[in-house]
Write a structure and sequence with these properties.
The structure holds 2 protein chains of 2 kinds.
Chain A: H1 33-68, H2 70-80, H3 83-108, H4 112-144, H5 162-195, H6 205-229
Helix pairs in contact in A: 1-2, 1-5, 1-6, 3-4, 3-6, 4-5, 5-6
Chain B: H1 15-23, H2 28-56, E1 62-65, E2 71-74, H3 79-84, E3 86-87, E4 90-91, H4 94-130, H5 139-161, H6 175-178, H7 181-211, H8 224-256, H9 269-303, H10 310-323, H11 338-366, H12 375-392, H13 394-398, H14 400-406, H15 410-440, H16 446-472, H17 487-517, H18 557-560, H19 580-583
Helix pairs in contact in B: 2-4, 2-5, 2-17, 4-5, 4-7, 4-8, 4-9, 4-15, 5-7, 7-8, 8-9, 8-10, 9-11, 9-12, 9-15, 10-11, 11-12, 12-15, 12-16, 15-16, 16-17
The chains are: A mainly alpha, B mainly alpha.
Bound molecules: protoporphyrin IX containing FE and copper (II) ion.
Residues 170, 284, 287-288, 330-331, 348, 351-352, 355, 391, 394-395, 397-398, 403, 406-407, 412, 415-416, 419-420, 423 of chain B line the site of protoporphyrin IX containing FE (HEM).
Chain lengths: 231, 595
């Protein structure tokens, strides 16, 4: 029950310097490394729950206004948003979700370089997503005045409530985009840890958690894409 | 000396090293103490605003024309502030000042004080110890929550200094989207940021309860305080994000005019109310559940008796947490369809069931117990009395026909003060006395604390019971003046607030006196059976010199206290010399409890 499984039991036995992941010792208040890893994952799942709840606020607002203004909603979606751009970004995020899983797999197999390569691909996908979003959507929209609520100045509205559709579009995609940006930072942090040898078969909790975070960012987009681009 | 036997309060080298050891600490006990200091400061600040609000209501305005034809307005206690408060080139009206003061009072009390008070201060300190753990699951996250709390609180103070907010703590649109530009946005962001602190604390506690119980401690071996904090943590994690997104949308509404709460742009202000109460109704249980937890501990320990209906109390907390998510629209009976009203009214009544289960269990615990009359126990009884009144005035508000009259009157104000102040705050003060000797290793001056407690109890009831009458007579909430007929009741209420303040200051004095000159506290001054009473007072750095072993349940007084021993005297009383030990095999733990 209380067996202690610190990984540095035979430090240096075979005469070589241990990698940090091999020498990992759990925090002083933990009974063993297993409990610590389990707790970290539980904490992460709870955090993901809060993320979903946060976005569900947007989804509720979306549902209310779509119910009130169904036709205008449909027209605005077709007119202001290009499904092709959205689709490209969807593909890129799906790919990045796959590569982040491969990075974890590489850690389990103790292939340090592959952890780094897969995380790098993930990060490039994330960057691609943001560049497309900002360069091909946000900037043209700002120039044309396709802005939320009271700031809306576009010359050719499709209905009376385009600006509300655009409000929902802006606040939800911008909040999601902010999460992608945070993702880039945490993935870079994981790359740094990977480069320093902190991930190996017995210890890769934070990498797994970064992966979980990245999945939730993808999943939210998987919902936003059809709701905004394909109605 | 190893860190195993040094008190966590022991200074570390020089003065600055000691300060540093607090500022950078990841010890849940120090973080708990820092939270305690901060929430008490917030309580003081919020309380001063409350006194100002009550002072304004001491008399109604009266505009009198004198013999010389001059008009003067009397009875505006806040006039001297309004006259000195220049904004955009002119002075404020008393109404503006009054609005800002009651909003400051409400927002500070809710977001800075009562939500973090019990979980982040007492919970941080005692939850890991009660589980036999060395710390919470994520100590660094814990420190981060604390700094987020500090930052959010400073932002709230900035908002107050920068002009304050007039919307009330509920931030209803359109008032919140059209008034006091900088300060309202700052206050909204402050509540948003404080929400993160609350979420992280909740996550930490859930993981701690799941993963750090001492080996052998099952779910039903946990003290009820832990159950309550656990249920609270679930609500903190599940409800607070919705508040976050709501406040964020409000900030977007103010900064980018997104219009979703603005009817002029096709939005809907009632939508805001749905969002807000979807968080804030569960949030009222974030506020009260920890109070329930304290009440259970106080009653069991100071009645020296197994708590009646342990499982019923534990499960009713979870039931309350669950039901609290489906009743939010009872705050909008005047703003929605009859069908919705009927549904939400019925659902609201459900909450009364698990709540009443708890009250009956607590009362049954006191039945035929050997009760020690001391400050914590007196507070447990004050809590029971006041919370019951608060709970019983909920159903009239949940009843459609009566709520149409009572909505937005002082009846609602009295109702929620009876549950929040009479429930949570009284339990908090009781808990503070109960655990004070453990936290700081000093006893407090019992007669002084009891006198202060009586003043608080009397002052509280004089202040707020009157407000039920004010409410039923039609006194609306959030007004700076009133019709003259209500003067007597308002004056009684204001005088009550002075008695209350006197009692609270006396408590503060007793605490300071204890820190300066209190007698050293024994390990187990009250005869409690939970783990915190097995370690030193104050606890050593990693809580226990050795990992504790669970040998009895948290309230197993029958089996632990020797039969010939007066439970109220335990563990101070020694068994009479000769042969007692051999007769009862179940009291083997007695030896570990010597003081
Ligand atoms: C027996 C259980 C309870 C019932 C049935 C109940 C019902 C209600 C109802 C229907 C209202 C809305 C009144 C109105 O605005 O017209 C209300 C207001 C309120 N209740 Fe309760 N309540 C209960 C317990 C509690 C508890 C335990 C707390 C907090 C610790 C609480 C805190 C509040 C607050 C803060 C408000 C007023 C919010 C505001 O408008 O500023 N209630 N309650
Ligand atoms: Cu409510």
């Amino acid at each position: 029950m209380t067996s202690v499984t610190t990984t540095n039991g035979d430090a240096g036995a075979n005469g070589r310097e241990l990698e940090p992941h091999e020498a990992y010792v759990p925090g002083a208040h933990w009974r063993n490394a297993h409990d610590e890893a389990e707790a970290a994952k539980l904490g992460m799942w709870l955090f993901l729950g809060t993320e979903i709840l946060l976005f569900s606020g947007f989804f509720c607002a979306y549902a209310v206004f779509r119910m009130w203004y169904p036709e205008n909603w449909h027209d605005a979606s077709r007119y202001y948003l290009s499904w092709k751009i959205g689709f490209a970004n969807t593909c890129v995020l799906l790919l990045s979700s796959y590569t982040v899983v491969l990075a974890i797999r590489a850690a389990q197999q103790n292939k340090k370089n592959w952890i780094l390569i897969h995380l790098l691909i993930t990060n490039l996908c994330a960057l691609f997503f943001l560049v497309v979003k900002i360069g091909w959507e946000y900037i043209p929209k700002i120039q044309k005045g396709e802005l939320p609520g009271g700031l809306f100045t576009y010359y050719n509205p499709q209905g009376e409530f385009d600006h509300i559709f655009l409000s929902i579009y802006w606040i939800s995609t911008a909040t999601h985009g902010f999460h992608v940006l945070v993702g880039i930072f945490v993935i870079s942090w994981a790359m740094w840890l990977a480069a320093k040898g902190h991930y190996g078969p017995k210890h890769y909790t934070s990498l797994e958690n970064v992966g979980l975070y990245w999945h939730i960012v993808d999943i939210i987009w998987i919902f936003l894409f059809p709701l905004l681009y394909l109605v | 000396m190893s860190h195993h036997d040094v008190s966590y309060l022991e200074p570390k080298g020089s003065f600055w090293q000691t300060v540093w050891s607090w500022v950078y600490t990841i010890d849940h006990k120090k973080i708990g103490v820092m939270y305690l200091t901060a929430v008490l400061l917030a309580f003081l600040l919020g309380g001063l605003f409350a006194l100002a609000v009550r002072a304004e209501l001491f008399t109604p305005y009266q505009t009198i024309v004198t013999e010389t034809g001059e008009t003067i307005t009397k009875g505006e206690a806040l006039r001297f502030i309004a006259d000195r408060w220049v904004e955009n080139g002119s002075t404020l009206t008393v109404n503006n000042v009054y609005n800002r003061f009651f909003t400051a009072h409400g927002a500070i009390m809710v977001f800075l004080f009562i939500i973090p008070a019990v979980p982040a201060a007492l919970g941080n300190f005692f939850l890991p110890i009660m589980l036999g753990a060395k710390d919470v699951a994520f100590p660094r996250l814990n420190l981060m929550s604390w700094y987020i709390y500090v930052f959010g609180s400073l932002l709230a103070v900035y908002s107050l200094v920068n002009g304050g907010v007039e919307t009330g703590w509920t931030f209803y649109t359109p008032y919140s989207t059209t008034t006091n530009w900088g300060s309202t946005t700052a206050m909204l962001l402050s509540a948003f940021i404080l929400g993160f602190s609350s979420i992280f604390t909740g996550m930490n506690f859930i993981a701690t309860v799941h993963k750090l119980r001492v080996p052998g401690m099952g779910w039903f071996d946990m003290p009820l305080f832990v159950w309550a904090i656990y249920a609270t943590a679930i609500i903190q994690v599940l409800a607070t994000p919705v508040l976050g997104i709501t406040l964020l949308m409000l900030v977007f509404e103010r900064t980018f005019q997104i219009g979703i709460f603005d009817p002029a742009l096709g939005g809907d202000p009632v939508l805001y109310q749905h969002f807000f109460w979807f968080y804030s109704h569960p949030a009222v249980y974030i506020m009260i559940l920890p109070g329930f937890g304290i009440a259970s501990e106080l009653l069991a320990v100071h009645c020296h008796k197994k708590i009646f209906g342990y499982r019923a109390i534990a499960f009713s907390s979870i039931a309350i947490a669950a039901i609290s998510f489906i009743v939010w629209a009872h705050h909008m009976f005047t703003a929605q369809s009859v069908a919705l009203n009927a549904i939400f009214s019925a659902l609201t009544f459900l909450v009364a069931i698990p709540t009443a289960i708890k009250v009956f269990n607590w009362i049954a615990t006191m039945y035929k117990a050997s009760i020690s009359i001391n400050t914590p126990m007196m507070y447990a009884m004050y809590f029971l009395f006041c919370f019951t009144i608060g709970g019983l005035t909920g159903p009239p508000l949940a009843t459609l026909a009566s709520d149409i009259h009572l909505h937005d009157t002082y009846f609602v104000v009295a109702h929620f003060h009876y549950v929040m102040m009479g429930g949570t705050v009284l339990a908090f003060i009781g808990g503070l006395h109960h655990w004070w000797p453990k936290m700081f290793g000093k006893m407090y001056w019992e007669p002084g604390a009891q006198l202060a407690g009586i003043l608080v109890f009397v002052g509280f009831n004089v202040t707020f019971f009157t407000q039920f009458f004010l409410g039923t007579r039609g006194m609306p909430r959030r007004y700076a003046t009133y019709i003259e007929e209500l003067t007597t009741l308002h004056q009684i209420s204001t005088i009550g607030s002075w008695i209350l303040a006197l009692g609270l200051f006396l408590h503060l004095f007793v605490f300071i006196h204890s820190l300066a000159a209190g007698k050293p506290a024994p390990k187990n001054p009250w005869g409690g059976l939970t783990f915190e009473w097995e370690t030193e007072s104050p606890p050593v750095e990693h809580n226990f010199p050795h990992e504790p072993v669970i040998v009895h349940g948290p309230y197993d007084y029958e089996s632990v206290v020797p039969p010939h021993c007066d439970p109220a005297e335990y563990p101070v009383a020694r068994p009479p010399a000769g042969g007692a030990n051999g007769t009862n095999g179940t009291n083997g733990t007695n030896g570990t409890h010597h003081a």
